Each structure stands twice: as structure tokens, then as C-alpha cells.
Amino acid sequence: MSLFKGKHIVQEIEGIRCSVVDTGLTADRARFLKTLLADNGYEVKMENEKAKDGTVLETFVMGVTDILFNAVIRVYQNKLHRPDGHIVTPAYWNQWDADGDLPYWMVTR
């Protein structure tokens, strides 16, 4: 999802300006990304998305307080690490079932 968009968005989440990591997240996906980013030392902020008419949706928007953070750059520059110490690959970030040793350009969905 967010690895397909390279645009850097800054938004206020929980009253703090954050660099948006992803939007439209389910609860499971949000939990996965929150633990991954927190383990890498980022302060994660998250809140429910709101529709244009102001109603609260069941999806989440997530951001980190590091304004310069960009998920695409961090993943493809191998700057993020999994809890087991290995580098986060695009397949791991997107939670695809793929071989961890397979180069990113060979992973298709």
C-alpha cells in the first residue's frame, strides 16, 4: 500500500504533526506496523480515519513523529529491521507470503 506511493505527507495525528506512514489500515495491519516501527525507535501516532461528513470509520491513519520519515526510502535503503534482526524487505512490510532471500524485484503479487 504505502510502498506504492512515494509521496511524503505530513498530517496532524493526536494533536502532533506526523509524517504519515499509511492510511486506510485495518486493526491487524496497524498493530503490525506499530510494533515494527516502535521496535525501530520511532514514536508512532495512530487514530481512526474520518469520512468527509465527520463520521468515524473503522480504518486507521498512522504516522510517526519524525517528519522526515518516508516508508519507501526506509524500506528500500534497508534502514528498518525486523524483531529478529533481519532487514525489512518489501514483502515483509506488505505482509506477503514470500521467500525472504528473494530479491525485491522478483517478488510479484
Question: Concise description?
Answer:
The chain is α+β, with helices and mostly antiparallel strands and 109 residues long. The chain is 21% helix and 28% strand.
Description:
It contains three helices and four strands; from the N terminus they run E-E-H-E-E-H-H. The radius of gyration is 14 Å and the shape is globular. A hairpin with a 2-residue loop joins strand 1 and strand 2. The protein has one domain. The mean pLDDT is 89. With 109 residues, it is of the alpha+beta class.
Outline the fold blueprint.
Layout: E1 10-13, E2 16-25, H1 27-39, E3 44-50, E4 56-64, H2 71-76, H3 90-93
Antiparallel strand pairs: 1-2, 2-4, 3-4
What proportion strand? 25-35%
Characterize the main sheet. Answer: 4 strands, antiparallel
Q: What string gives the helices and strands in order?
A: EEHEEHH
Uncertain segments:
none
> What structural class do you assign from the helix and strand content?
alpha+beta
Helix content: 10-25%
Radius of gyration: 14 Å
From the spread of the alpha carbons, the general shape counts as globular
Q: What is the number of helices?
A: 3
Kindly report the average pLDDT value.
89
- Taken together, the total number of domains comes to 1
Q: Strand arrangement, largest sheet?
A: 1-2-4-3
Distance between the ends: 12 Å
Number of strands: 4
